[in-house]
Amino acid sequence: MNVIKTGLLLICGALLLLTTPAWVVVKQGNPSTLSDKPAPRVKRYLYVVTPGVRNYLGYGGHGIQVFDIDNNHRFVKFIPTGGLRKDGTPSNVKGVDISLATNCIYISTLEALQCIDLTTEKLVWEKQYEGGVDRISISPDGKIIYMPSLEKEFWTVVDAKTGDIISKIVTNSGAHNTIYGPDGNFVYLAGLKSTYLNVADTKTHTVTKQVGPFSADIRPFTINGSQTLVYVNVNGLLGFEVGDLVTGKKLHRVQVQGFNIGEVKRHSCPSHGIALTPDERELWLCDGANNRVHVFDNTVMPPVQRTTIQVRDMPGWITFSADGKYAYPSTGDIIDVKTRKIITTLEDQHYNSVQSEKMVEIHFSGKKPVFAGDQFGIGQVKQKQVASRN
């Protein structure tokens, strides 16, 4: 009898398994790890701040124009900003940078620095500083901002979260362009009234070295990723000069061949804008009078001129997408680096031309920024290490 009962139980169990709905699933483990919802896809955007060519509102109005890098750089949205003069008119935008630590974008104008939350797109604070504000640069950890006064005697070091002043560095060089080194140990300070590039130690906020002299006062510049070389524009030169960041010596002077210097509309400088491709194999140089970008082979030293690209207006700045695929001159032309072809141009929601010398790439996962690009065209090859910089 027991054998018969056991057999009947086995048969009933088998029938129950066969008739159980296929959608009945038992999951084990932490419920938070079992969600079928996929992680947000990372989106790449180009944030273009205007007026980024003097105070010309015709090149994009007043605010931030956002473009979708992965969708042929098409317009996405417009974000209003602060940065007004006392009479209520928009002030010139002088610089832009990103801090992932504070989740904010920072925009400097002639008079002030503003901090805008990248998720809410609301103004967190806006502060005016003694001497005005020029092109800023933020530390790799996003906590410190080096802020040049507007072509005056000093740089101000501020806390990125609060905007509070930490220190002041007096160079008497006409403070202008600033690059925070990729390793976070040094900041490079170029003034409009000096042929020397000052190098500041970020631990002490003091100048510990000078590089130069170069042949004339320094304008835009860039550095390689290992922080051993600096490439500078200087007044009066259609071309660039190269300096050694380790020894402090000027190494080379490179002049563009086949083009005349000519008159420029802005900056009073034949070449105002210089950048390295992220792999550092090429150097791209702005030519204001001829509406050109010249491309140099940077695998040799000094770099050798290879080709030229005509753009739609006078270029006054240039940088690259983080992956090195696109070149971004201030004219709003989007250049395919490999083919040298202009593949599109930046236009706002009304199909007006957008141009700016202040733009930066930002990657978002959902509404959270997870990566910030480089506005200065800094090389990204960091294998070489320098034991001592003093």
From TrEMBL:
InterPro entries: Haem_d1_sf, Host-pathogen_enzymatic-act, WD40/YVTN_repeat-like_dom_sf
Transmembrane segments: none
This protein's name: DNA-binding beta-propeller fold protein YncE
